[in-house]
Amino acid sequence: AQAGFEACDGDDLAGATCPAEGFPFGGALACDEVCDFDPTACTRVLQVASGDQHTCALLSDGTARCWGENMRGQLGDGTTTDALVLVPVTGITTAVELVAGGSHSCARLTDGTVRCWGQNSDGQLGNNSITNSPVPVAVSGLTDAVSITAGASHTSAVRSDGNAWCWGDNASRKLGDGTTT
Fold this sequence. Notes:
Layout: E1 30-31, E2 37-38, E3 45-50, E4 54-59, E5 64-68, E6 83-88, E7 95-100, E8 104-109, E9 114-118, E10 133-138, E11 145-150, E12 154-159, E13 164-168
Antiparallel strand pairs: 1-2, 3-4, 4-5, 5-6, 7-8, 8-9, 9-10, 11-12, 12-13
């Protein structure tokens, strides 16, 4: 309640919204049992990941937003245009984890798959190519990831069986497979 009168009543929020209450990404503002605003369903930032020249945020609605340099498509918005403000990552709607490498980023989705975007000169996107991608692409053959991490030009996942799975640059044996391939 505000100064002795109701802040809201049922669905009547008197024009109040999540952005007006300090949650710029939207969501569903509601009222609690004592007629105070309840921002529980407002979209929040859950995680932030930074690469060399870009940063990404995982939002509570499962989407991701990135900003900064985008020369290699590392913002995931389908362009190579730098962004001074947060831009939505194309097609990411069920992310539960986000990582950023040097000039690439990846999201782990609720179904255990991983999508990566940006620089791919060493195969760090995991899609069996070395072509940069300004939109998320699926990591080939990975359907049971429980966590992910990224280095400058390689990426790794822990699978549901507890084994690590790594891809990308292996010049210094970063992938742990006993080779430099």
